[in-house]
Design goal:
single chain, alpha+beta, 3-stranded antiparallel sheet, 4 helices, elongated
Length: about 110
């Protein structure tokens, strides 16, 4: 039984637990907390699409990184077997990179 409690304590909070904590901390109802989080998500998405950067209240900085397309056929080393295999082609894509800022680093 003690193992189950220890394992549960190490898991990150679920979305529902986060909504409940935000509602309790801000003195809002759960529905209002969910609406506030959804609004923050919309602002974050719009900013990333328009500017490519979003500063999450001084805690983290989100940036869009453009990954170029990769042509296939080039021989690369398979790290598991050491064998040289042809590289697979990949289309260009966009990824979101998250970096923690000083305020978050100092609090952890």
């Amino acid at each position: 039984m003690a193992k189950k409690k220890a394992a549960a304590a190490k898991k990150p909070p679920t979305k529902s637990e986060i909504y409940n904590a935000v509602a309790e901390g801000a003195g809002l109802s759960r529905k209002e907390a969910i609406a506030a989080c959804d609004a923050l998500t919309e602002v974050m998405t719009k900013s990333l699409k328009k500017n490519g950067v979003f500063n999450l209240l001084g805690l983290a900085k989100l940036t869009v990184v453009k990954k170029p397309a990769v042509k296939g056929g080039k021989l690369v080393r398979n790290p598991f077997t050491g064998e040289m295999v042809p590289q697979k082609p990949k289309p260009a894509s966009k990824k979101v990179r998250v970096r923690s800022m000083k305020k978050l680093n100092d609090s952890v």
